[in-house]
Write a structure and sequence with these properties.
Blueprint lengths: L12 H14 L4 E3 L6 H6 L6 H5 L4 H9 L17 H10 L8 H13 L11 H12 L6 H8 L1 E5 L2 E2 L5 H8 L6 E2 L2 E2 L11 H12 L6 H17 L4 E4 L11 H12 L7 H20 L2 E4 L3 E2 L4 H7 L7 E2 L5 H11 L7 E3 L6 H10 L5 E3 L9 H15 L17 H21 L5 H19 L5
Parallel strand pairs: 1-2, 2-4, 3-5, 6-7, 7-10, 10-11
Antiparallel strand pairs: 8-9
Helix pairs in contact: 1-18, 1-19, 6-18, 10-11, 12-13, 13-15, 16-17, 17-18, 18-19
């Protein structure tokens, strides 16, 4: 049996029974996915997926990084110049190394997808690799395995993509113009026109000006261009922005100083610290804009992107070499919070890859500032143990209602139901432990299980208006 019905539930019989009952009530609730990275073209064009390797192996950085760490070359996974082009050979390589995922959340997600989506009844291994490949390939050729059909089959009610500030949102428009009823929302990700360290930054600002008709050579015109793009994203259904900064540092410079900083950035005269200060200032500017337009603001700091320069140069971005690093929020967020943190119109959702901040900083901050909410465990920590560590460290100080439930943060479509299944089981286990230790009664636990599975995400991201 690849997937035991009691997986992740407590070993203690009494606690396990309560967890079962809680999960039975929420396990099949519709999925709200308010932050993710699925390809919007999938939803617009609704194409067939090419083959099992293209769907489940090559784009999954969790899969790629594990195999690379064990000496499998990128080329064997279909990545890079001179790479393997036979998808069956790539799949065989994946199957030969499937044992490497034992004990990881990736194994749970992959097993779930292989069993529930494609009907496999034995775990992937070298001896059944070809049979599994043929089964999945046969499925992918059928219309019921195209993206929109999978959306409906998975019980997704809302999914958000992450889109650059310069994106024309053509695929979102295609969804809106179709007769399909799925709700696919864009998310405003302005990093490429906010971070001066981004390659091609000056050209991106030129393009931002062309799109908006604003003078992005001036500080006022640059901010107006952001406001215009945000308004366009809102018209297309967006309820949130997302900011993937290296740190959560914010600043609130007087207007003349901010304008002078922008001038240095725009004209190529920036000093070594100006890029950091500009990113910090722009987080506060984005928060002010969120006060005005109601877009929920998400901050995802703490990733050392593309840690291997050689991998970045040879194989490109998003190849599994983004590594967590320490961050601190308390002093970093103070300028932004002093500016707008008490305004009830601001909703700022904080994420971290630094778990040491959970009880020391994030829970106390969210437990005081009305504008703050805590996002779920992110990236390396959206696992069973990661979710449990998060709940144990933040709940006593921030409670449940200063969190926003779960979002799957994935580009791997077939893992979405698996990730929500894991999260719901983890939360039901945590709630069951509170019941048996008489910190909650069962009625409260059932209400909270629903909130954590669905309702907090919808409220936190303002999805219901």
């Amino acid at each position: 049996m690849m997937l035991h019905p009691d997986r992740l539930f407590p070993a203690d019989p009494a606690t396990r029974e309560i967890a079962r009952q809680l999960f039975a009530a929420v396990g099949d609730l519709p999925i709200t996915s308010p932050h993710g990275h699925t390809d919007p073209r999938w939803w617009g064009e609704n194409p067939a997926f090419a083959n099992p390797a293209e769907l489940l192996v090559i784009p999954d950085h969790y899969v790629v990084r594990m195999l690379i760490s064990q000496g499998v070359p990128f080329e064997a996974l279909g990545i890079g110049e001179g790479a393997e082009t036979d998808p069956r050979a790539i799949w065989r390589c994946f199957a030969a190394h499937y044992h490497l995922f034992q004990g990881t959340p990736s194994r749970l997600w992959l097993d779930h997808a292989l069993a529930h989506v494609f009907g496999l009844d034995t775990r992937l291994a070298p001896e059944n690799a070809d049979a599994a490949y043929d089964r999945i390939a046969d499925c992918l050729a059928r219309p019921e395995f195209r993206p929109r059909a999978l959306y409906d089959r998975f019980g997704i009610e809302t999914i958000a993509t992450t889109d650059g500030a310069l994106d024309d949102l053509r695929w979102h428009r295609m969804v809106r113009d179709s007769d399909w009823t799925g709700q696919v929302l864009p998310t405003y990700r302005p990093d490429g026109v906010v971070d001066p360290d981004t390659p091609g930054f000056a050209g991106a600002l030129d393009r931002l000006g062309e799109i908006t008709g604003c003078d992005t050579g001036t500080w006022q015109g640059y901010l107006d261009a952001h406001r215009q793009r945000r308004a366009f994203f809102r018209e297309m259904g967006a309820t949130a922005t997302d900011h993937g900064h290296p740190t959560p540092r914010t600043a609130d410079l007087p207007w003349p100083e901010a304008g002078a900083l922008f001038d240095r950035i725009r004209t190529g005269r920036a000093g070594p610290q100006d890029a950091k200060l500009f990113r910090a200032q722009m987080l506060t500017e984005m928060a002010r804009m969120s006060v005005d337009d109601g877009l929920v603001m998400q901050l995802h700091p703490g990733s050392f992107r593309n840690h291997s320069a050689a991998v970045l140069s040879r194989y490109g971005r998003d190849r599994g070499f983004d590594i967590p690093q320490p961050v601190s929020f308390t002093a970093a967020l103070k300028p932004l919070l002093d500016a707008v943190g008490m305004d009830p119109r601001l909703r700022l959702i904080l994420f971290t890859l630094d778990e040491t901040t959970y009880s020391r900083e994030l829970a106390p901050l969210a437990g005081a500032w009305p504008s703050l909410r805590l996002g779920p465990p992110w990236w390396f920590h959206d696992s069973f143990e990661g979710i449990r560590r998060f709940r144990r460290q933040v709940t006593e100080t921030a409670g449940f209602f200063n969190t926003v439930g779960f979002n799957d943060d994935t580009r791997a479509l077939c893992s979405i139901p698996a990730r929500h299944d894991l999260s719901r089981r983890a939360d039901c286990t945590f709630l069951a432990e509170l019941v048996v230790t008489h910190r909650l009664d069962e009625t409260e636990a059932h209400a909270l299980a629903r909130l954590l599975a669905r309702d907090l995400a919808r409220e936190g991201y303002r999805l219901d208006g």
